[in-house]
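RECORD TYPE: protein structure
NAME: Prefoldin subunit 2
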Amino acid sequence: MADKKGAPASQKALTKAEGEEIVQKFQQLRNEQRSLMAKITELEQDLNEHKIVIETLQDVSPDRKCFRMVGGVLVERTVTEVLPALINNKEQLTKVIDSLNVKLVSKGKEVNEYRAKHNIKVRGQDDIKESQQTDTTTGTQGVLVSNKS
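PREDICTED:
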């Protein structure tokens, strides 16, 4: 009888190695999620730069000289040659960002499922939620700066 009662308790209790393995896997998932977010941010910055350059080049003469970085080498071209390539790059960046956003959402779901499955609680997460609730009730205490010179 002692074996029957003892067996379920030993199955529920995790060994130290298993616990560390679960935490390590969770950290790996979160790091993958962070790296996806960093890549998305980098590509969004590139996309914004492309938009600015495209807007600028649309206002200038099509025969005007411009320079483009190709493989680390500055190449002289005309606006007519560069503008279609920039527009194509912008479209490709948009597609890549969209696909990475889909991957980020699925990775977030995977992290949340793993957290729920293994009952993982992140330290400080409850403290942050409580401080956000108190911040919204107390209002903002910012600094007002005049634009007058």
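COMMENT: Residues 16-121 form a domain with the Helix Hairpins fold (CATH 1.10.287.370).
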